[in-house]
Automatic annotation (TrEMBL):
Superkingdom, natural source: Bacteria
Domain Peptidase C39-like: 290-406
Pfam families per UniProt: DUF5648 (PF18885), Peptidase_C39_2 (PF13529)
Biased composition (Low complexity): 45-77, 100-110
Keyword Cytoplasm: no
Keywords attached to this entry: Signal
Positions of the DUF5648 domain: 124-256
Classification via InterPro entries: DUF5648, Peptidase_C39-like
Full protein name: Peptidase C39-like domain-containing protein
Stretches the record annotates as Disordered: 39-117
Biased composition regions of type Acidic residues, renumbered to the chain: 78-88
Extent of the signal sequence: 1-26
Record bears the keyword Signal: yes
Amino acid sequence: MKKKIILSCSVVMVSFLLGAHSHLSAETMEGLDEDTVNVNITDNSTSSSEISHSSDATSPSSSETISSNQSQLPSESTSEEASSEEEINTVPSVDEASKISDSSSKDTTTAQQEATSEKKEYITVYRLYNKRNMEHLYTTDKNEMTTLLKIMNSDWKYEGGAWMSPKTAGASVYRVYNPKSGEHLYTKDSYEAKVLSSKHGWKNEGRKFFSDNSGISVYRLFNAQAGIGAHFVTRDAYEKKVLTSKGWKYEGIAWKSSNTPLVVDYTPPKTPVPPKPHAKSPVYFSQLNSRWSRVPLNNSTVGVSGCVPTSLAMIFKGSYGMNVDPGTVAIRANGISHQSFGLSGKDLLNTVKAYGRSVEQISSQNRAITLLKSGYPLVFYINVGIRHAVVVYGYNNGTVNVFDPYNRQFYPSGRASLTSIWNKPSADPMDWDAGRPVFAVK
């Protein structure tokens, strides 16, 4: 029995060695006798006592045993193959691998999308400048900019992008507006905005953009002498330095702009320019000027009641280049008028015609607007507590230039809304003797 076990082991080991050392030639293998093989095998796998019995391997019983053991080998191999198959089957198939790859790709894409959705977004804050009142306007609203820039002969000028601001997060920056002066003020201080709007007549226009948590500082400066544009903000440290050297007071850091590249994606429209005026702008004369204030006008003087001849002199001289002044016009009118004090509507018509110009009496505000846009100067007889006459010229979004001959006493700024002038005509009947006392001199 012991021999059978040893021989079976020998056969198995021979099979192993033949597989492991297949590089030995067939001739070499044939040159080895059975005993040598058995000895070599048992040298590697058995004790010396077992080797002494290996010479009986040629006996029939031993042969049968070997055959019997050899017949059992395939079953062991099949078991090993089955085990090997089980291990191989743990590796995914091509389809399964593809699904895993797709799933992994989807997970990666989802992660990237989530990262993108969490990425901070920014918006551009633009800057406009008003060349008339020297105010700066800051806005992210492109429609607001377009509206302001498309005003006929607009005072607003586009200056480009100022800085980048967080689009949806950060501390709020408020804009408050003073309807009396037209000034805007920007502040991150909600209490300051509240006080200005609740106690000082300012209108809180709400949040206009955000301050970043960190980034480039935006500075605020103040100059009481600057008028409407007294408050100013800038991100430009050099601009801040220049202004402070010229008397502006540095009020500190107003908020933070985003430290991200400036993106300018707005193309400003062309500001419409009115057609070439039919007449130039009038020049200014004061009826109180000592050179003609004592010139007689009916039963009075130019200085006392000469607002109409002084208004006509401003138009004749400035708009049409005629060599006149309030005194010479008053002398001409004095020979035409039959009033005791000042000139009536009909007196104006006749005086204009005496100088070779035409005149149109105006009955509607819309007609007045049309003529002003075309560049014609107009004379308005108005009521400012006393009967008075002024020259109106130009038209810009409802505002006109006013030449007040009484040393600008009633219109010191030289500007007013056309509606406000239209709505206070003279109450003196003699001024209405040619219709509503508004006249375009052509």
